[in-house]
Amino acid sequence: MSTTLQAVRGMNDILPDEAERWEAFEEIVRDWLRAYGYRPIRMPLVEPTPLFKRAIGEVTDIVEKEMYSFEDSLNGEHLTLRPEGTASCVRAVLQHSLLYDGPKRLWYMGPMFRHERPQKGRYRQFHQVGVESFGMAGPDVDAEQIAMCQRLWDDLGLQDVRLEINSLGQPEERARHREDLIRYLEQHQDKLDEDGKRRLYSNPLRILDTKNPALQEIVEAAPKLIDYLGEESRAHFDGVQALLRDMGIPFRINPRLVRGLDYYNHTVFEWITEQLGAQGTICAGGRYDGLITQLGGKPQPACGFAMGVERLMSLWDLAHAEALINSPDVYLVHQGESAARMAFRVAEGMRDAGFSVVLHAGGGSFKSQMKKADGSGASVAIIIGDDEVAADQVSLKFLREEREQIRVSCDDLIEHLGEALLGFTDD
Length: 427
Ligand code: ATP
Ligand code: MG
Fold this sequence. Notes:
eight-stranded mixed β-sheet, five-stranded mixed β-sheet, 41% helix, elongated, binds adenosine-5'-triphosphate
C-alpha cells in the first residue's frame, strides 16, 4: 500500500516560480537594510522553551496556544520552534555581549512557527524579516525604523499601506491605566468572551485588541492608555510624530493598538493594508526597553519590528499585476511573409526610439492577434498586412481610447507614436 506524503498542514513548499520571486524580494531587502546600517544575524530555529515564556509572557496567544514545544527525547530539555525572532535575537546579543562597544543595529530573516488555524496569510510555518536596534533610547530611532518601512514599500512599489501608531508609555503608567481598565471591564464582565474573562486580571490590555465584534462597543469606550502618559512618555511620542511629519509620512494614532507581545513600551506601530482581507497587518513593531533586563541583561533600550514575508509577497504580486497592465507600449500585429519581415524592422525601429514593443509570434488570424494585442495591455496596436507593405505604411489602432484608426508612413511612425503615447509632437 502506498500513500502520498504531504507537507505538514499550514507549512508550505515554495516552488521555483515563487522561490525566484522570494529571491528577488530578499535582494531588495538586503540592499534596503544596508542603506540604514543594519547588519545580519542568524539565530537557531530552536530555543529553550523558557526563553519565550520569559520574553513574550505567559498570558499571550503565542505562549498559551501557538508554540511548537517538545521535549528533546535524548536529554529531556524543553525546546520550542521559535515563534518570533526578537527573543532569540536578544538572547544572542546577551550571550555574546554584543553591546559591549556600543549600540547595534541588527536584522534577520527566516521561518517562524506558530500553531494557528491555517488560512490565507496565516500559516504554521511563515517567514519574517526582523529588524532590531539596541542601545538607542531616543524617538529618532523609532521614527527612523518607521521611515525605513515606508522606503521599503516604495522600493517594492506597494500602495495603500497605512500606518497606525500608539504609545504604551512606561510600566508605571500602564499600571495606573490597568487598574482603571480592570475596574471598567469588571462592570461589563458578563458580556466578555472566554478569552476576555480569562485575561481580565492577567492581561486586560490584550482585551482591547480583541477581534471579537461583540466586544467592540465595550472596548471602544474603555479607558485609553494614551490618557495616562506622563510628561516623558508624551515627549517621546511627540518626538516620533514630529519626525514622521518632517518626513511626510502620514499616520493615524490608534489608541487601541496594544500589540500581542508584552515587552513593548513607548512607541508601537503597525502597517496595514486593506488588499489582503482579514490578514492585513504586514508589519508590526515598536520599542521594548524592558526586555533586555527581563532576560537578565543590564538595562538597554531597544526598538524593532517584524514583517510577514508571505503577506508582503501577496501584496507585491498585486502591485505587479497592476503594473503589467501598463506595458508594453505597442503590440505589433502582422500577416503574410513580407509583412513579417517588415514587422521585425519596424519593431526594432520603435525600440530604438525607446518604446516597448511586443512583436506577435506564432501566426494566427488577424482577429486572434488583435485579441492578444488587447490582452497584452498595450496602448496601441500596429498592424502590417499586404496593403501596408505595398505602401510602406503601417496602421495604428488605439486600443485604450475612442479614436479612429490611422495609416501613417513608416518614416512618420515614431512621431505619431510620440504624440499618441507621450502626448507631444515633434516640431
Ligand atoms: P496577527 O494579529 O495577524 O496574528 P501578530 O500580532 O501575531 O499578528 P506579530 O507577532 O507582530 O504578529 O508578527 C509580525 C508580523 O508577522 C505580522 O504582522 C504578520 O505580518 C506576520 N505574521 C504573524 N503571524 C503569522 C502567521 N501565522 N502567518 C503568516 N504571517 C504571520
Ligand atoms: Mg498572531
